[in-house]
Amino acid sequence: PWDRFMHVFGGGVAACFALELILRGFEKGFLVSRRPLLVIVLSVVLITGFMGYLYEAWEYVTDLVYTKKSLALGDGRDTVDDMNLNLLGAGIALSLTYPLTKRKLEAVVE
Hints:
Blueprint: H1 2-28, H2 36-66, H3 76-109
Helix pairs in contact: 1-2, 1-3, 2-3
């Protein structure tokens, strides 16, 4: 159960980090796009997915180093479930933080 919670939580943290990073890029003029909302959504999803991949790789390496077998990684289905839980956590976190980031988002998308 801790593994599932960590993936949901980690996905939320990664998504909030990615959103803030992308919004600041637009605010400071480092990022320019004709379709900023598309860039924001794709960037958040891709960064969250990549950070989820890094967490899966960390689980794999720690299993090999400490137990010489794959315990935390489980089978292939566990890995896919974990990646989906990362994206679920991202969706939950972004839904909860939307009221806080609404003004920034509207300024960028205009």
